[in-house]
Amino acid sequence: MASKKYVYRFDEGRADMKDLLGGKGANLAEMTRIGIPVPPGFIITTEACREFYIEGRKFPPGMEDQVREELKTLEKNTGKKMGDPENPLLVSIRSGAPISMPGMMDTVLNLGLNDQTVEGLARNTGDRRFAYDCYRRLLNMFGDVVLGIEHQKFERILEMQKDRKNVSFDHQLEAGDWEEVAREYKRLIERETSNPFPQDPMEQLFMAIYAVFNSWNNDRAKIYRKINKIPDDLGTAVNVQLMVFGNMGGDSGTGVAFTRDPSTGTNQLYGEYLINAQGEDVVAGIRTPQPISALEEEMPEVFRQFVDTCQLLERHYRNMQDIEFTIERGRLYMLQTRNGKRTAQAAIKIAVDMVKQGLITKEEAIMRVDPAQLNQILHRRINPSARLDVIAVGLPASPGAACGKIVFDADEAEKMGQEGEKVILVRTETTPDDIHGIVAAQGILTSRGGMTSHAAVVARGMGKPCVCGCEALRIDYDHEQFTVGGQVFRKGDLISIDGATGQVIRGEVPMVDPDLSDEFRELLRWADEVRTLGVRANADTPEDAAKARDFGAEGIGLTRTEHMFMAQDRLPIVQQMILAAGPEERSSALDKLLPMQRGDFYGILKAMEGLPVTIRLLDPPLHEFLPHAEELAVEITRLRMTGGSPGDLAGKEELLRKVRSLSEFNPMLGHRGCRLGITFPEVYEMQARAIFEAAAMLVREGRRVIPEVEIPLVIDVNELAYLKEMVVRVAGEVMKETGVSFEYTVGTMIEVPRAALLADEVAAEAEFFSFGTNDLTQTTLGFSRDDAEGKFMADYLGKKILEENPFVVLDRKGVGKLMKMAVDLGRKTKPDLLIGICGEHGGDPDSIEFCHQIGLNYVSCSPFRVPVARLAAAQAKIKNG
Amino acid sequence: MASKKYVYRFDEGRADMKDLLGGKGANLAEMTRIGIPVPPGFIITTEACREFYIEGRKFPPGMEDQVREELKTLEKNTGKKMGDPENPLLVSIRSGAPISMPGMMDTVLNLGLNDQTVEGLARNTGDRRFAYDCYRRLLNMFGDVVLGIEHQKFERILEMQKDRKNVSFDHQLEAGDWEEVAREYKRLIERETSNPFPQDPMEQLFMAIYAVFNSWNNDRAKIYRKINKIPDDLGTAVNVQLMVFGNMGGDSGTGVAFTRDPSTGTNQLYGEYLINAQGEDVVAGIRTPQPISALEEEMPEVFRQFVDTCQLLERHYRNMQDIEFTIERGRLYMLQTRNGKRTAQAAIKIAVDMVKQGLITKEEAIMRVDPAQLNQILHRRINPSARLDVIAVGLPASPGAACGKIVFDADEAEKMGQEGEKVILVRTETTPDDIHGIVAAQGILTSRGGMTSHAAVVARGMGKPCVCGCEALRIDYDHEQFTVGGQVFRKGDLISIDGATGQVIRGEVPMVDPDLSDEFRELLRWADEVRTLGVRANADTPEDAAKARDFGAEGIGLTRTEHMFMAQDRLPIVQQMILAAGPEERSSALDKLLPMQRGDFYGILKAMEGLPVTIRLLDPPLHEFLPHAEELAVEITRLRMTGGSPGDLAGKEELLRKVRSLSEFNPMLGHRGCRLGITFPEVYEMQARAIFEAAAMLVREGRRVIPEVEIPLVIDVNELAYLKEMVVRVAGEVMKETGVSFEYTVGTMIEVPRAALLADEVAAEAEFFSFGTNDLTQTTLGFSRDDAEGKFMADYLGKKILEENPFVVLDRKGVGKLMKMAVDLGRKTKPDLLIGICGEHGGDPDSIEFCHQIGLNYVSCSPFRVPVARLAAAQAKIKNG
């Protein structure tokens, strides 16, 4: 039986054979195929690697023979021979996985050198120093990579040699020194492995191939795959290629280049090179490379050839290329090409430019930009080139960066804010009492609480940077300072926070502002032409609504009314309402809130004139608006022991009783959402009235407004029917009182499994559904987000129990199954039912694709993510039709 | 078009026409049909009532004519005539709904009397006093029921007449007095309604029918229906029947009887009667009635006829009958028969006796006993005939009654318990620190916390009576007393609690012990023959396991291991494990726990020798084993202010930090269940080892044991696979170490929606499923049980948003849909997958029926409910096949 084909010559492969030949190999083959100068060689397939593992780390049968065969061809084509002291064939051995894993696996250069061939190389090149430099590099790499000898041990020998010669740099060493070093390296190898360095080049070759296969499963490769979610069973290919040398003198060199600027996208060659150097010298940064443009003067002919090749490669691949090249004695060789990594800004500019150049279609341009990367440019952020003194890392609770003076108290934050100071409010955690401080601060930093803690939710709502749950901080309110890692930070000290990474940084750092470039706006217009999924924003204020509209939102998918309740001037009234002894006192508080809420809704509806605005009635449990029981209990103890005024004490005790009676074991599953509307209909009634009175005012002003009244946390059609009846009644009353008629609809959140399971029934009373996937994820998985992310999510992801954090990427299998069910059941009852999503997943590209697949009408996300969603929705359409 | 038939003569109906004729009417018709002496009459159908409401409270067309028609027939058959002063026809008007609603709707007797016919009645009976007594009764009832005049106003006139005559009792009034009273009643009616009392008997009749229809929707009827879950749209029938009079002298009388003793089930006539009285006099209790046996001497002939009739009725209905009768001048009339209400004990005895008499089949006997009623006899309970001084009512958290001295401290409870005192532990709420007190107490009473509070869960686990969340109690630990309703109860005072009703009672009350009578055991044996659904018990101790086995449990469906962790001698070790600085310290604590857990499992497995025992690995969040943060914070404040020892303070502060770091926002959705196993595998490993070492010991003793290791709170097959691998490894290790092999399986709880949704995947790794419907209900509905039952469940049930409390009766539509899905998906992967339920629903008859329908293998419930489940499972099989 003829064995499988495990080895491909470069001229047998193509770019689309990446799975079999690895990325590097496939591109080497492709370049060879289209006539670009590439040192010849061959590729051992990823399949051979996979079988190597299946066979218990043995080469699959036939592979070795095929390698020997191709080596013979290589010898014939180059006129060199492995182990021939006269004209030795030297090769490089490089790994190359289907998905790039830079630096994770092993490479051996100059393979084929031994005590004889090194002399041949010296003779042929007339450069003994070069030859022994190559040899010692092989011994080092082979010793390290293939034989597993600590790199430091080679390093120490080299340093000793420099000491002996009393020099500081490698290039100060001479031929004899390298010869001495090579000798010492061979001794080291023999000492460490009890075997001499293999002088047989074929033995070297197979040992190196074995080592590369092995390196697929070294620790750093495994960790890299875990982090980058690369499957463990792909395997790596091995590239065996004729060595070319950039270190053969002043007419040799090596470099890397991008066909366009990878950080701005500008259409000009970008890169650098070193004369008389090997590739690793560029990476190591020992000498400062020259910009690629300098090559034009130094070697005009080579430069022109290089520019032509770059253009050819870009046109061929129809994408910006990341290229490695070597010049050996005036001859240009390409050693690698691949699609270049780029910043979000560059990705956008390159994609749009390439459409204009006719290189790619608009759809391809849309697919070229990774929506996840856009976060980089949609928030104020720390200048990526800044050096940071990171003192701690917390949870990245609300993206954006901020800088300011440390302040520990909300009142003080407000005062300093009014005086024009920039402050960062630092608290163990925040409560509604801190809202005015949060408003005044540039950013929020807490030492406790998760991604849905008060600070995080409020900050995200305000689009304000927040790092929370930064447990390394020890906050000492009494002394107005915090300590972290033994350092003390006092009130007034400057710190910066990065809400996108969770970093807390000493001092002030330079920032970069967000910006929708013209190219970006153009790309998004193309995306809008393609996508069928609508994009709305979650916004609680007219400012946010306006921002969202500017970013292209086609409506508001979620307006939370509770944040309005938490404003400092309202909180006392809200508390009065909650603590009311009876309906009368409650209704007097509600009377005071009505005009305020009407004002809120007036502003938002006006900002979104002509577009739908989903307004969710009060959702959080009432105790969120009250002080904490523990703080009260401590205060009462203090009052008792210091003999404070009996009136004070009694008041606090009464308040504590009420707080306790409202406190809940599991607030997430407690008395909130429409359950509040069922037990305190007057609260929802006030809100409905505020919405409709605002709508009537705007209609009278000649504006079209489309409020969608949303009932949260429904589990049964009966809740919806009960509350809808009230809403419809109030709408009728307002129309009668004002003599104005206005549009409106009534619908519901789907955020509890039961609502999804019974969506056919619920749809009978709902004019729209909106998936609240934050809560739906919490209930479907039985995961309290704050608790999960603080306590066990890391283990769940680390042990691969879950592939992704389900609060970031929608859990398609579980939550998605329920959503699909709800869509199908809901549309069974009402084929035209409007269905959207307003959980944080509405801004996540992967989740947006799923929303497209199951036929939602729109996604709704934070204003800053609206561009992300527009792009992701277009990509979903292109991928899924 | 001929109108619908709205009126049925008694001889036109049958017992099975209850929906149309109402219960009373159908049975009057049935008795008429089988030749039992019933005063003639006719029935206006429930359909007429329903149409009455549809038409806006108007009689449906044709109904009145049909009534007139049947009245003529009645006149012909009786020889009497409505309004005929010579021989007036008098009738009673009684409501009669398809489902009995005793006392809820209206009745008018003696209808047909007016100023003329009363004289005729006087002449014909020769008893003027009797005639005017009848007349004034009509005026009173008609005035009250039909005309809506306050009953008190009639009462006052009667009292004035007695004052005038200077007498105390009705029977001291003479004919003239009644005449005078009737006159005053008529004046009252004219004054109140501006119309005289209608003298036309036909007008009286239709007004009375109208009033009965109307009374279907009076407030007390509506409330009764709500409480008893009777649909609002059934409507009531109206029975028009010839009056017979038990108050016509010494040869007349009236009474009620049961064909068997309704409290014991003994097969002998049971009832009482009054000579010379109308039915309402028996009910009113003005005179003491005589036992039915006395009738044999007073009227032997009538008695024999009555006994025969009773036997006939019982044989005819094949059920114990509740009968009303009247004797008019020596003639016996039956006025009502219906299946008699009975105690659980009686229901069982009657059913079993009737099988032995050949009256009913075993299957019918099984269907005759309401499983819900069995609670009465399966717990120690308060003697139903005791007079109770109820001082407050809390949540019925754990059934059973208990009595003892009040004690406010767990240590003291333990001390007094050891001295042989019976105590009730009274706490605002309990914590794990109180366990030894709970163990020592007869029962637990708390002022805070819901049905799943610590006290409730622990008490139910121990089968110990508990009333919790009794908010009326103000507990004052400092003075060792509580106040309720202005009364003070001190340490040492005697109280009783009833955990089945939530009542808290002053003093000691007489108790009745639970008892499985021979008849009950026989009935349950029949049930076992019929049912296909298995019945297991939830038990955490060998004692409970033994009890469950005695009650017929076929295995343990849930052994919770956490209660074992809470034992007073273990808690410090458990806390040491939790607070451990690192794995080493943790493992030293686990080493101490291992032999204890092994002992636990040894005991339970031994008690259930030969039967399967499902052992759930640790489930609750770790902070449940630690003190409360608030208490610690208060203590720290106190220590600081009093300048306590710095060491103490630092220790408490460190503990508080740890408690805080473990505390959770929503513990129900937090770091618990298998999430603990994922993050602290060593805890689960210790438990697995304890189980298997116990199993090995028992196998070596020659016993067969079948442990089923259960992984809780699974949401993904990966969790199960990860932990199962560990369990299987440990089993292998133990087998190797002990040289003993043993049976075991590994399976999972299905208690989170995602597990149900992905049950096909989960089943691949599971050898069994057990539905944890308590948690599954919490997550599917997004209801925290403790919060829901304390805060909004009452509104949800009151406003009919939900039909039933879903924590008591399984929510078939939502939770049930998920369960069905999980069963189908699970069996798709493994057709023979063993599936059970261990939530509290496993003891609820309605939920058991559903479990039978969706094909579960078994239900598991608390030991005391095992007989309930056996019966309910048999009923489910009989009903559903």
Throw out a few tags for this protein.
homodimer; 881 residues; alpha/beta; eight-stranded mixed β-sheet; eight-stranded parallel β-barrel; 36 helices; 47% helix; 16% strand; elongated
Give structural notes.
The structure is a homodimer of 881-residue chains. By secondary structure, the first copy, chain A, is of the alpha/beta class. Chain A contains 36 helices and 31 strands. In chain A, the strands form 6 sheets. An 8-stranded mixed beta sheet of chain A has the order 12-22-21-14-15-16-17-13. An 8-stranded parallel beta barrel of chain A has the order 24-25-26-27-28-29-30-31, surrounded by 6 helices. In chain A, helix 35 packs across helix 36 (866-880). The radius of gyration of chain A is 33 Å and the shape is elongated. At the A-B interface, helix 24, helix 26, helix 28, helix 29 and helix 31 of A face helix 24, helix 26, helix 28, helix 29 and helix 31 of B.
Strands, helices and their partners?
Two copies of one chain form a homodimer.
Chain A: E1 7-9, H1 18-33, E2 41-44, H2 46-54, H3 63-78, E3 91-96, E4 107-111, H4 117-125, H5 128-146, H6 151-165, H7 175-193, H8 201-215, H9 219-228, E5 237-242, E6 253-258, E7 270-275, H10 279-284, E8 290-291, H11 294-298, H12 300-317, E9 321-328, E10 331-339, H13 344-356, H14 362-368, H15 375-378, E11 381-382, E12 390-393, E13 395-398, E14 401-407, H16 410-418, E15 423-427, H17 435-440, E16 443-446, H18 454-462, E17 466-468, E18 474-476, E19 481-484, E20 487-490, E21 494-498, E22 503-506, E23 511-512, H19 518-530, E24 534-538, H20 542-550, E25 556-560, H21 562-565, H22 571-579, H23 583-607, E26 612-616, H24 629-642, H25 646-662, H26 674-679, H27 681-700, E27 706-711, H28 717-738, E28 745-750, H29 753-757, H30 759-763, E29 768-771, H31 773-781, H32 785-791, H33 793-798, H34 812-829, E30 834-837, H35 845-853, E31 858-861, H36 866-880
Parallel strand pairs in A: 14-15, 15-16, 16-17, 24-25, 24-31, 25-26, 26-27, 27-28, 28-29, 29-30, 30-31
Antiparallel strand pairs in A: 1-2, 2-5, 3-4, 3-5, 6-7, 6-9, 7-8, 9-10, 11-23, 12-22, 13-17, 14-21, 18-19, 19-20, 21-22
Helix pairs in contact in A: 4-5, 5-7, 6-7, 13-14, 13-19, 14-19, 19-36, 20-23, 22-23, 23-27, 24-25, 27-28, 35-36
